[in-house]
Amino acid sequence: MQKNATGSASGGLNSENPQKPAAEKAKQSTVSKSQTPMQIAMEEARAAGARGEVPIGAVITRKNQIIARAGNRTREINDPTAHAEVLAIRMACEVLQNERLGECDLYVTLEPCAMCAAAISFARIRRLYYASSDPKGGGVEYGPRFYSQPTCHHAPDVYSGIGEAEATALLRDFFKEKRK
Ligand SMILES: [Zn+2]
C-alpha cells in the first residue's frame, strides 16, 4: 500500500493545473532548501509539546510553498477535533478559499488517525507524507485503514517513514515525561 519515499510523478499530470491562482495570500513562504516540510512539521510538533499538547505537527504545501502549518491544540481550545492535520486543512482551505485541496500535499509527524485520514480524503489532498506509524491510534496502515475501504472516494498517495526516528523520539519523550 505504501509507496517509496523517493516518489514518482504520479498525479503529476494534473498537478500543474494553472487555474485558481486567486486567493494566495500573505501566509505563504517558499520551502527553504535547508528545511524540508517534514522538518517544519517537526517544529510544529515540538511547539505543541511545549504547550502541553501531544507533540504532533502538520504542514500543507502547494506548488512548493507552505500554505499552512499547525500543531495539536486539543487542550488549548478544548476541541477533540483540533488535531494538527485538521487545523492545517482548515487553514489551507481558508488561504485558498476552497474546500478542496487537490494540488496540495500534507506532511504530518505521525500516522493520521481515522478522523484525520477521512478529513484528508474529503479535502482531496494529493499526497500524504507521515513520519512515524501509529499502531495504537493510526487509521491509514493500522486500525480502520481508511483509504482501503470501499466507502473511501479519494485516497491520497501515501508515503511514510520520512523523519521517523525524530518523530518517534519526540512522542516517546513526551509520554515518558508525562508518566513521571
Ligand atoms: Zn487525527
Automatic annotation (TrEMBL):
Keyword annotations from UniProtKB, A to Z: Hydrolase, Metal-binding, tRNA processing, Zinc
Active-site residues, as the UniProt record annotates them: E85
Record field: catalytic activity: adenosine(34) in tRNA + H2O + H(+) = inosine(34) in tRNA + NH4(+)
Cofactor(s) recorded in Swiss-Prot or TrEMBL: Zn(2+)
Domain of life: Bacteria
Pfam families: dCMP_cyt_deam_1 (PF00383)
Keyword Metal-binding applies: yes
Any GO BP: tRNA wobble adenosine to inosine editing
EC annotation from Swiss-Prot or TrEMBL: 3.5.4.33
Ranges where the record places region Disordered: 1-37
Domain CMP/dCMP-type deaminase: residue ranges: 32-141
Amino acids binding Zn(2+): H83, C113, C116
Example of a GO MF term: tRNA-specific adenosine-34 deaminase activity
Assembly behavior: Homodimer.
Family named by the database record: Belongs to the cytidine and deoxycytidylate deaminase family. ADAT2 subfamily.
Protein's name in the database: tRNA-specific adenosine deaminase
Organism: Pseudochrobactrum asaccharolyticum
